[in-house]
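Researcher: Dear colleague, please comment on this protein.
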Amino acid sequence: MIVELGHFALVLAFLVCLVQTVLPMWGARIGDTRLMCVGEPAALAQFGLLIVAFAALTHAYVTSDFSVANVYANSHSEKPLIYRISGVWGNHEGSMLLWVLILALFGAAVAAFGTNLPETLRANVLSVQASIALAFLLFILLTSNPFLRLDPVPADGRGLNPILQDPALAFHPPFLYAGYVGFSMAYSFAIAGLIEGRTDAAWARWVRPWTLAAWMCLTVGIAMGSWWAYYELGWGGWWFWDPVENASFMPWLAGTALLHSAVVMEKREALKVWTILLAILTFSLSLMGAFLVRSGVLSSVHAFAVDPERGVFILAIMMVFIGGALTLYAWRAPSLRQGGIFAPISREGGLVLNNVLLTTATGTVLIGTLYPLALESINGAKISVGPPYFNSTFVPLMVPLLLALPFGPLMGWKRGDIHAALQRLWVAGLLAICAIVAVFAVVQRGPWLAPFAMALGVWVIAGAISELLVRVRAGNADSAEVFRRLRNLPRSVYGTTVAHAGVGVMVLGITATSAWQSEKILTMRPGETADIAGYALTFKGVAPDNGPNYREVVGVVSVTRGGQSVVDLAPSKRQYSAPPQATSEAGIYVALLGDLYVVLGDEAGDGAYAVRMYFNPLVRLIWIGTIIMFIGGALSLSDRRLRVGAPRRARRRGPAAVPAE
């Protein structure tokens, strides 16, 4: 009965979406306030109905109701509770239900907290948002219904893919989808602005918090996926430029550009046309990611194995929303009034450079991702575009971006002074030079460009701190004045500083582990010892063990350094029963300077096993940097000026009108 209730709620949500798509937009067109007001209760009702549907599917998983085809295909009675719950979105049908639930969540948030928006803009935003949900609800009901029943009822399920039975993968998809889907709000605001034919600084102010929230979620989602791939897949790396990884990375790059472009639009009413286009393209890349993952055109550990017919349906959705948006953009963009003029050397100019480099980088990733698919569709040839391509195209674009990053916040609006900015950054430059010397002194071996990349990370961190110190006049005012300025700084300033510093920390981790990773692959018998990165690893043999739904062979590796015992690592090979599949669990020792990473391979006879060893210097800085970036985004989002419903004065005076252009 609960399953049927969930299915019924899903159908009702589709009907509510239909109403929300048509009536508010029509009301905005004819000026009927009553029709426009339908959007708010409809958005809240849609969200409530989808919560009911999602809760019903979750109940079926938790209670192991194998009469539901989706539960039978992706769960098992022996599976731990946390993985029964995560199994709800660990498959195509359930993840699509989560997708539309998050779509509805963002729409309901605008309905509940967007009271400062102009009435017509709010109505159009809610209608556009509902139209996206309408398309995906239709897709779910026609091709991907998670509530289909089985008769007769199987005795047990097939189980969830073992590599997805992991805590990081339990939380990775919700954050990733919140980022993917969250960019739909920027898209909805862009389409609503184009429909009304008016965009200004207020529009940018309204769209920024939604974009920032989506960017934060996508940052965490990508980081969790990278962390999972690092310790679960047993290959010793953290990023492979897999097409499905790229599918999430491209919206992140475009979303980062959109955040910075919206700042220029808000402060100077410049880059209007470009910002609108970025909002459309960012969500378009999210839709493309959904197509790549669910169409069956890719074979990846991250992809859902679904039939191509579903991919055709998603392709049709893409054509409608991307093609329709770009057509509307081409029609309306020439009529949008351009904003203020600025010099190339200015804060606006720095943000434009940021946008040019980020969007070009997005383009290189897009080409590398789609080129093999396009070539295969033309002549059937199968090729792969791997790390060499991306490292030779993407990395050179990031170097000038990171070099310019500290300059932007120190430049004035409209016209800046690069000489004055250099004077304020002399300490950051000195620290970067010291970093080069220190790295050369410690490492004394190639790759010889790596010390300069490490210095680049130090430059970004020190530059971010320098910008904060300049704002509070550190060194030019007494301590009381400095602390007063620190207390009075907007949170968004702290957010920018922290986020930029996080980028620098991440650069340090990426450079160190990419340049100086140590690796050994060998066959070891019990009692044999191997050395790597100053550690001595002695293989003690293996022992069997059992988990809740798997059997495993656990290796024992004793680690010493300088004759002193450090730790005993326990890499293992697991064999799951439902579904029958083998996985590897790495043994990882976390030290201040890097990770010692050991993987147990196949048995080679006579008690010998293949063993892979890695030492990944400073690799944890990659994920620490992303956490710092997320905290920076959260600080900015907590700034009253960047929240929906922002200044108190605006709330007392009522909704602010957007001047027509």
Summary: The first helix runs from residue 2 to 30. Residues 209-322+331-412 form one domain.
